[in-house]
């Protein structure tokens, strides 16, 4: 049910592995009625944080500037020695851990997920979903290191 | 008013001492009200036998009907939380209901005190629900996200955006200079992603009956849902594929669907009040 730009394939059958992609719809959309007691879900409200707010901060500006300056380094010095390259890579790796400017809300989603999972059994769907997440994580890591 | 299958999962009296929260014990899911999955018209087939609801020991999924309207419900576990297992069950059950017919999906975690309170609610708002069901009949929701490739977008801004180039030219390595550079990059990034967002909506909205912004999450630069008529779904998917190719440089376009129309029910931000 996920059409991804990588495979260009269309899988018609709805599949629980898409849960992570529709999490915010299940938690924030859908019908709600007044007389109903809606279960209080601690932390879920964080899902609605506007990612754009994260963009406009001094911290973000500095991070962007740092990144562009790093572009200068990598592009102007074609003759980078091996130690230099390694340095750059470790730096990028650390930067990846402090997360990109646009991904501020990402952690709140997975945090809510972790909280929600609690002592829950690790069933097959959770394993699938984790695979999806680690795949996207390794994707951004690859980009950092390239 | 009672349906044949209705008594199967009757809610035992509440107010009993809560069972210890021991995951190994079935009593951990001491029922606590009527969990509502969705609302359907009375003529929805409601083949519920195979359906598995929320909770560690999900009770039977059943139907609570009032005249033209019915709710698909189950027993609400006492300690309902947004567990992966239960979110998946909620979504899977609604997906199955949507395959069988038209359904108004409830948000996760909607619990009525008991069946009788639910019937009162259904009776009172029957017309509104019927109208909403009519509106989403023969459609499905498709959610489209752009997962931005931030590095690529930043790199392009650094190489092509005039304001960014100006700041790079100035090469002011002081605090103020770095802020100005970063600010220029940030606004170039935002501009690029807004342009992508506009392109996505401009391309897909004409193929959809309705469009609703979805909550911003994760690293999704763009998150929008579309209500697509079944006869348009092929064209819609085709257009998504083309967008995915066109925007590859900025990130991954990810389309999920067909989904129950979570974003197109009454009272929702994108829906009719």
UniProtKB/TrEMBL annotation, chain A:
The cross-references to Pfam families, in alphabetical order and at most eight, read: Gas_vesicle (PF00741)
Major location, coarse class? Answer: other
Print the keywords alphabetically.
Answer: Gas vesicle
Give the coiled coil ranges: none
Q: Which GO terms describe its cellular component?
A: gas vesicle shell; vesicle membrane
Subcellular locations according to the entry:
Gas vesicle shell
For this protein, the parts annotated as crossing the membrane are none
Q: Report a single Gene Ontology molecular function.
A: structural molecule activity
Record bears the keyword Cytoplasm: no
Where is region (Disordered) located? 75-146
Q: Where is the composition biased (Basic residues)?
A: 127-138
Highest taxon of the lineage: Bacteria
Q: Which InterPro entries match?
A: Gas-vesicle_GvpA-like, Gas_vesicle_GvpA, GvpA, GvpA-like_CS
The record's listing under NCBIfam families reads: PRK09368.1
Q: What is the annotated role of this protein in its UniProt record? A: Gas vesicles are hollow, gas filled proteinaceous nanostructures found in some microorganisms. During planktonic growth they allow positioning of the organism at a favorable depth for light or nutrient acquisition. GvpA forms the protein shell.
Annotated HAMAP family = Gas_vesicle_A
| Subunit and partners | The gas vesicle shell is 2 nm thick and consists of a single layer of this protein. It forms helical ribs nearly perpendicular to the long axis of the vesicle.
**Family assignment from sequence similarity:** Belongs to the gas vesicle GvpA family.
State the name under which the record lists this protein: Gas vesicle protein A
Q: Which organism is it from?
A: Actinocatenispora comari
**Species classification:** Bacteria, Bacillati, Actinomycetota, Actinomycetes, Micromonosporales
Q: Which gene encodes it?
A: gvpA
TrEMBL record, chain B:
Q: Which GO terms describe its biological process?
A: gas vesicle organization
Q: Where in the cell is it found?
A: Gas vesicle
State the signal peptide span. Answer: none
What keywords tag this UniProt record? Answer: Gas vesicle
Q: Where is this region: Disordered?
A: 1-32
UniProt entry tagged with the keyword Ligase: no
Q: What cellular-component terms does GO give this entry?
A: gas vesicle
Q: Major place of localization?
A: other
One Pfam short name:
GvpL_GvpF
InterPro entries from the UniProt entry = GvpL/GvpF (IPR009430)
Family note: Belongs to the gas vesicle GvpF/GvpL family.
Protein name as it appears in the record: Gas vesicle protein
Q: What is the lineage of its organism?
A: Bacteria, Bacillati, Actinomycetota, Actinomycetes, Micromonosporales
